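FORM 12-B: Structure-to-Sequence Request
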């Protein structure tokens, strides 16, 4: 799985880095430019949790529900308008509401008013004003003192009545001891019993009054901790920068995946496999300028790049096919010249395997094969079409044993008429009789109609797909065209241009004199090979 995504990440690394950097920079800039805010808090206690000596559970539950009501009041427009009018502030109720945050804690029954403002002193002022307004609107603010005063007055009256009753009992007990008759003693005893009953009721009332006085009301709200100067709020610039960069990275990944899905360019062998069911024969490295160094299999035979071409030749030569591959057509999709380089190296490999090979440069537009073998000034295919000579007379032997090259020629020609002519078909048939394999380097398969005609005359077509340039629909279109004319397809190869191929293969810079010596040696080798062929 990772080997599929790593090349994609390398291709789009610039985009991921750019989106991450831009998003992080924007987040840092916006965070740094945010004005500094201050926060102030006021804490209020709702209910009898502290003031009551013996708070009841039901009282605490009722106070918790009342606390939620008090938390909603500051969000009401009448509350805000009255507060703004009382304090003389110059902002709207909506702006005031945006500054206030109310939090409640049902466990401690503490209501917290938090205010966020860009002025340190005003933040504390707003928090305290809201708390005072809540206390002022609560019923305990006006009724608690009056109720306490009434209870104290009742307690004083009851205590006075109890004292009077005690004095009366003492008088009656004294009268009882002085009574002479039984009737007097009975009357006094009845009066004592009534007075004691009255005193007991007064004492029970006194205890009830004291209990009520000690018990705080449920609807009590009081300020526990008023707000002081506002504290600065941390703008969290590092955290916001990191989060912004991460969001940019995620956005870059999304753009990368969308671009990959929208782009059908073939870049990897897996892409080529999914494009068609044609056999995949390997991945080849090519020159950026193919004709500069000649065939790789000759210039640097000990490299892995040359081994790739040897493996391709072995697959074509030794693998079983439905028909003998006497004519192998090598063509690229758009005509970027890679077909000429692949055909030249393939022809050398087939000749090294012991076959007699003719390499035909059938691409007079680019003439890559002719350039690689330094035959651009030689008559070739185009001159043959305008003359009565035999095609074999245009062949040029090379230093590779068993390999001859038919240059593209120098004259302009109607390529489609040339490829479709019976004379050219007969010439190819004649070449089949004198050599083992004919390798043809064709022009663009997707845009040149003559390539389809030439493919129909070949025993197998090898499609060179340029990595990072050719698209899936173009390859499918080429395959459709080849199947339409009945051209057999031998397989596909993925051609990857190597920007640093000169350094990769270990070539050193040569002087003009050394290049001339190399060219002179190649001409000598061609003369020796020509004499060998003639003999």
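FORM 12-B RESPONSE
SEQUENCE OUT:
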């Amino acid at each position: 799985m990772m080997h599929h995504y790593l090349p994609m990440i390398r291709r789009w690394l610039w985009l991921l880095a750019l989106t991450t950097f831009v998003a992080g920079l924007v987040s840092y800039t916006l965070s740094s430019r945010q004005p500094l805010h201050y926060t102030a808090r006021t804490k209020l206690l709702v209910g009898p949790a502290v003031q009551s000596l013996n708070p009841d559970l039901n009282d605490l539950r009722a106070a918790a529900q009342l606390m939620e009501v008090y938390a909603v009041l500051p969000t009401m427009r009448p509350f805000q308008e009255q507060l703004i009018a009382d304090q003389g502030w110059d902002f709207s109720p909506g702006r005031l509401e945006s500054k206030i945050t109310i939090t409640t804690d049902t466990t401690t029954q503490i209501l917290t008013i938090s205010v966020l403002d860009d002025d340190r002193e005003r933040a504390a002022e707003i928090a305290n004003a809201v708390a005072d307004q809540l206390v002022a609107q609560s019923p305990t603010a006006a009724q608690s003192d009056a109720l306490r005063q009434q209870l104290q007055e009742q307690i004083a009256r009851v205590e006075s009545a109890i004292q009077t009753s005690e004095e009366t009992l003492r008088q009656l007990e004294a009268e009882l001891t002085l009574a002479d008759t039984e009737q007097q003693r009975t009357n006094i005893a009845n009066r004592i019993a009534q007075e004691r009953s009255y005193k007991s009721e007064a004492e029970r009332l006194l205890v009830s009054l004291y209990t009520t006085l000690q018990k705080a009301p449920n609807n009590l709200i009081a300020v526990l901790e008023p707000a002081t100067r506002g504290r600065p709020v941390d703008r969290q610039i590092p955290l916001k920068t990191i989060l912004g960069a991460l969001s940019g990275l995620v956005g870059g990944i999304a753009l990368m995946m969308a671009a990959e899905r929208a782009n059908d360019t073939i870049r990897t062998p897996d892409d080529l496999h999914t494009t068609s069911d044609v056999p995949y024969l390997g991945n080849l490295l090519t020159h950026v300028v193919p004709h500069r160094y000649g065939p790789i299999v000759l210039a640097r035979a000990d490299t892995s790049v040359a081994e790739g071409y040897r493996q391709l030749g072995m697959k074509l030569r030794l693998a079983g096919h439905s028909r003998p591959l006497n004519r192998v057509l090598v063509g690229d999709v758009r005509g970027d010249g890679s077909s000429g380089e692949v055909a030249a190296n393939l022809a050398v490999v087939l000749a090294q395997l012991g076959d007699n090979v003719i390499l035909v440069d059938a691409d007079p537009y680019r003439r890559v094969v002719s350039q690689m073998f330094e035959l651009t000034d030689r008559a070739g295919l185009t001159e043959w079409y305008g003359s009565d000579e035999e095609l074999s007379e245009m062949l040029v032997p090379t230093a590779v044993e068993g390999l001859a090259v038919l240059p593209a020629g120098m004259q302009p020609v109607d390529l489609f008429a040339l490829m479709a002519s019976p004379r050219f078909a007969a010439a190819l048939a004649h070449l089949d009789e004198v050599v083992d394999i004919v390798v043809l380097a064709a022009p663009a398969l997707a845009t040149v109609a003559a390539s389809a005609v030439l493919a129909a005359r070949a025993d197998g077509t090898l499609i060179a797909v340029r990595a990072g340039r050719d698209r899936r629909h173009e390859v499918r279109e080429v395959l459709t065209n080849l199947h339409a004319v009945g051209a057999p397809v031998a397989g596909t190869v993925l051609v990857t241009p190597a920007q640093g191929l000169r350094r990769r293969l270990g070539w050193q810079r040569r002087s003009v004199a050394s290049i001339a010596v190399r060219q002179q040696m190649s001409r000598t080798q061609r003369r020796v090979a020509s004499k060998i062929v003639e003999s």
